[in-house]
Design a protein that fits this description.
3 helices; single chain; eight-stranded antiparallel sheet; Glucose Permease (Domain IIA)
Amino acid sequence: MNYPHPIIAREGWPFLGVSTLVALGVTALGGLLWSLPFWLTVAFIVQFFRDPPRRVPDDLKAVLSPADGRIVVVGKARDPYLDREALKISVFMNVFNVHSNRSPVDGEVKGRWYNPGAFVNAALDKASTENERNALWLQAVNGADVTCVQVAGLIARRILCYVDKGVALARGQRYGFIRFGSRVDMYLPLDAQPAVAIGDKVRATETILARFA
């Protein structure tokens, strides 16, 4: 699951290759002025698929952010996957955020669920139940259950998840990617203490979302 950070995520290489070839072709045929929009597309693809390395905090009770973005939900909610009351924390990713998804805890994947659905704005809370989504049930090494849900957005049309039941994940380990705008919902035990508030900007792995009791 781990791989050397290549600056550009592997999911972006086909997009970058095609867009660069097109930009080069238009430049050769029509000059730089005509090709400028195509080079801007190349620049957008580079920034969208960037995948920088991240430092893992030493706090072993910490639940780390699985994604870059902005906090849009912090509060009590029903975890529909484990049928329990939980602390829900949601991170909204716009097209300018890094879109690699990383494990928030050290633990084992105990279950995985995929639900097809719509593509409403991922900043809206109804996206959690109406949009296409992929959920992982992670059992942390301390026994706590964590549900981590990748949710497609208004522009996102592809959720990628590379792990399944039985796989062990380390904090900060890359496990998936969502293309072009989305969100990640986290369901934690009710006694977990949130460390973020609505509106906070967070970074995958480096930002602590909550701490286990």
